[in-house]
Amino acid sequence: MQRLCQYSAAAFLIVLSGCATQPPKESTPHPLAAHIGAVTYQVRDSGDATPDEHPSGIGLAGPPSCQKWGTATGEIFHGCARRAAKVSLVPIGDAAAERYQTVVELKQNLIDDDTMRHHTPPITEAADSERLSDEQRNVVLDAVVYAFKAEDDRDFHLIVGDPDCDSPRCFMNVEVSALPKEAGSDKDDLTSVRAEFRSWLESEPGATYLFFVDDQGNGSPVPVRIEGSLFYDLDHVAGTVGPTGFRPDTSWEIHPIRKLAQR
Q1: Do the Cβ atoms of 151 and 104 come closer than 8 Å?
Q2: What are phi and psi of 191, to 5 degrees?
């Protein structure tokens, strides 16, 4: 990834100041603009897309089959893998929200990926797969949104991280989920989050990752507070979700988001 930095040298030490993680140099201007609070952001298109379910080479038997809900252009979730968990929130009454100031801090409090991929009992990919006990957690996270895209299953991926993040350890994928089929409090909450995210944008994002930038084209990630439930994404091994240079080193996600607010 590219960084714009100012350097000063003293006693053979290089001090980094005012650095900001930049969109990939091959990204191109995109007509979509974002209006978040009092700030207007421009957008650049990375041209980078990640397969939604089961990218090649991750060693799984294959995508699960199910009778999909909704349509490929609707608001209802349109995928199969772990559908039950992806469209449901952990009730606050069952798990009070844990507060984290950084992505790194949150990751330090997660079970490692190797343990989760070889979990006992195993995580099933079936559409009716519910959260395991290790996923029965709610969190509140302060972060910045670097990039976002629409998914075939009607979710939105948001690649978030700590400010000036330049390592996979401080990035994370969080998801504005598509909706469950049945009415209820989860559907109401997820509908509100989708409306909030969409209110930022002049038009619908597409299938490639878009970056928030200022009017000079420099990376301008959006400070946010995210509340949601933890989820382990068995579909994608660590390092395969997100645009090049912005891929998290874990398959843990906040999915779905319960609340999304600019800071």
Answers
A1: no
A2: -60, -40
